[in-house]
Amino acid sequence: MPTTTSYSEIREFVLHAITNDMNHPLDLGEITDDSPLGADGIDLDSLSLIELTLRIEHRFGVQFPDTDIEPVGAMKLRELVDDVIARSAAA
Asked: 77-90 and 46-60 helices cross at what angle (nearest 10)?
């Protein structure tokens, strides 16, 4: 029986992975769903994006082909969470 992963569960996982597992300093009070993952937002570099997508793949059983990783850097937090939900539904 498939399980549905909630928006808040994915969002919490992403922020926890960035701040705790990847040691990327963030002021969580300043992060919103509209915060960009790349420059002028959470400011993840390309290696951090790869690490984050690998963590998401492992946790939620989704796949990010190599060609999809660079576009993740242009996403906002909300867009990434929605993308993970869509990938989960397609899996």
From this structure: 40
